[in-house]
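ESCALATION

Customer reports they have been waiting on this structure for their group meeting. Please prioritize. Original submission:
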Amino acid sequence: MRLSRQISLLVTMLMLLVLLVTVYISIHGSRQYLLGQMRTQAQAAGSSLANTITPILVAGEMTLAEAMLDSVFERGNYQKIQIKAVDGRLLFERHLPIIVQGVPDWFLDFAAIESPVVQLPVVNGVTRIATVVVTPHPGKAYRALWKMTRSNITWITALATFGVVLIWMIVAYALRPLIKVKRQAEEIARQNYSLQTKFPFARELRQLVVAMNDMAETLEGLMAAQMDQVIELTNRVQTDAGTGLLNRQGFDERFNQALKQNASLQGQILIIRIGGLERLNQFFSFRRGNEELHKVLTRIKEISTSEWEIARLVGADMLVFIPDGQDCDIAQRCEQLAQALNAASEDLQCCIGGINITVGRDKESLLKQANQALQKALAAETRWYAGERL
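Update from on-call: job pushed to the front of the queue and completed.
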């Protein structure tokens, strides 16, 4: 579950708890108020009845006293009215069952009202001749309390709904930066070290965004340094230290990668053997040999394009891979390249064997075929040999 949803649910539960407590306190307070009103009403009615019925009881007019009791009781505000003699004998009694219409039973059980019992003496002078016992009927109190509670619940529900929606919106907006932090982390996992430019208002979230930006910058620096180191090590492993060209391992990786990417790869492979280098090193100096060798290598680089892959095999043997070499016939290319390289140095002689790449052949068979062309070129007076003429 999302953090924003957890916080919203927690706040919502706390709000509902507060609202339920508020409703309970409201019901309890209203019930106490209604009980007070009922007690006051019962005392007023009992006092009035006691004062009115005193001369009637003194005169012994029981029928008139009963009629007086009926007139008071018919108002329906009382559950029970009793008139008792001094010795406790029940003289008159009227009562109504507790039937409350318009109020659910569960509310009657939840907000039970115990009607107060009010006892008032009937006094003739200073002599007590009877007692009036009045118990008010709780029906009106229940209806008033239910109406008040229903109104409170309606308003509280409306306010709670509005409050919950508002809280969810506020929490979602406040925690929106966490979504951006999550996306930033996913981008960092994909090695895309993007930075957040907008910072949240909350201090904790602002510190989190700053920490993520710092981490992204640090990781980007580390990855760049590692990438440079990997490239440098790769170049060291795949590059010939003497000439700066690819070595055999580097050429094999480049050529195998080209074959994997294009099963119907087309192009040309040339093997160039530079003769006379050993003689220069032996009778003159290694410096003289390197100078003449670099003349030839410089000429090869001038003729080649960025698509050519040039590698040094062993000694003075060079390997050239020309992808999609249809712009020039293999024989014509070998002839032109042999003339250009032999013209670059008077002391070195270059011999070239070249072939067109045959679809379906692997690297080893192609290099073997190119080497056969080189051997035939060494025996030819033209100093080159093309595989098409085999």
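Sent to customer with the following note: Residues 219 and 291 are 45 Å apart (CA to CA).
Escalation resolved.
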